[in-house]
Design a protein that fits this description.
mainly alpha, 351 residues, globular
Length: 351
Amino acid sequence: MRERLSSLATPRNPERILLTTLPIWFEVTSMSVLLIILTADLIMAYKRPHIPSTRESALWVGFYVALALIFALLMFLLGDVEQAGQFIAGWVTEYSLSIDNLFVFVIIMGRFSVPRKYQQEVLMVGILIALVLRGIFILLGAQLIENFSFIFYIFGAFLLYTAIRQVFEDHDDMEQTESGIIRYLRKHINISPTFDGGKVRTVIDGKKVFTPILVVFVALGITDLVFAIDSIPAIFGITTDPFIVFTANIFALMGLRQLYFLLGDLIDKLEYLHYGIAFVLAFIGVKLFLHAMHVNELPFINGGEPLLWAPEIGTWTSLIVILAAMAVAVVASLAKMRRDKKRELAELSVD
């Protein structure tokens, strides 16, 4: 076994260092199994493109959720309750942000008229891009935190900004960023007007050209980049353990493809979900600010000394707040859907 920094500890703040005891074999085995599952999922999506039924999608989503809970249980048995709590809190946070990602995926799929039969394959590529980008940001974030404790101030400010943007901006606004790049692609690359199954390249009049799938992949990549920038500071507000951060992200992305088909049109109707996500981001942003104050080293704040009066928000408090915020947002959205449906029926009956 090896010792490792946990919670929001930093090497410059030894009183916050917690020793963890997860065996190396568990970490290596876990990463290997998760990568095998992701690879198998990709192969299935590529070999058998189809529109999954609601039952099939529900079973897969349930399987991945159960897998995450079993993983948390193993972390509790092999490590401690704090690590298990950090993983669950991180997983729920990243899962919530990944669901928000689905809103934009729906927009992209609709905008480019991707055949529903091939959306599984396209989504899987988008998820793999997200996984690679988040892995890069996790490594960068871990290095920044290890060497610069003031990065918590920056992360906190960024999350508060993201929360405000989440409340006031529409997901369609992201298309403005995408459109310039996509216009460039269409201008400088030969792209066919129609899809050729799930192929990236096809042959038209004897010439090899790209299909619109390429443009869709670029749009998904841009979306993933934006959400990776948003999501990584959020989970670093819960734990700085790279293993927990990375596995929480993997579990959040696993089953996202099936969740896309399970929710279907319901995604657009969860009207208050983005408010719940905004609250979670703002909460974690405040938590990061408080932690930054508690380990302060900036010379122009309190003479470079920690502000010990700043409270620290624990992992389990964070988990309760995150779950409550998302539950309220979903229940409120479903209640509004029911009220709107009753109103529509009442108007039809009057007519």
